[in-house]
Design a protein that fits this description.
Length: 159
């Protein structure tokens, strides 16, 4: 059922290069890519589409489908249930910073950034870029209302 839902949500368009996203907002950029199907489904389930289509600017640390698949079995399906919307929203808003932060601003630095859910993330740009232990595998995918940095793990709230 999850695959059917994700297939219905995802488009067949594949994001060819990060620069191609510059004419789309963060949500449309994620939909157009082929590696954010679970993230898009989660954003829709949490009711965050309109928020992430807003003017921003936003920085989104976007977990790949493989990052969601690495969570314990049944976790994603459970999070997508209506009764878990609050938990899902807390997880997703942990991935969003209310400002556009390009990787060049982080090079050689370790910084603490405040997320939309009120928690702080540690971004370490001294050897590549890591966010709370997740690797940034693709940086600086620009969108009309911010930037996406692709990460290889799902960040989980500490509270």
């Amino acid at each position: 059922m999850l695959r059917t839902t994700l297939a219905a949500i995802a488009t067949a368009t594949v994001l060819a290069a990060p620069v191609a996203a510059q004419d789309m907002d963060i949500v449309d950029t994620a939909v157009a890519a082929d590696d954010f199907n679970t993230l898009v489904a989660a954003v829709q389930t949490a009711g965050l589409v309109d928020t992430l289509k807003d003017d921003g600017p936003f920085t989104v640390f976007a977990p790949t489908d493989a990052a969601f698949a690495a969570l314990p079995e049944g976790t994603v399906e459970s999070l997508l249930l209506p009764e878990n919307r609050e938990t899902l929203t807390a997880i997703l808003t942990l991935h969003v910073v209310p400002d556009a932060v390009m990787s060049s601003a982080l090079a050689g630095e370790t910084v603490s950034v405040l997320t939309v859910n009120g928690e702080r993330l540690t971004v370490d740009g001294r050897d590549g870029v890591m966010v709370n232990g997740a690797n940034v595998v693709t940086a600086d995918i620009e969108a009309t209302n911010g930037v996406i940095h692709v990460i290889d793990a799902v960040l989980l709230p500490t509270e």
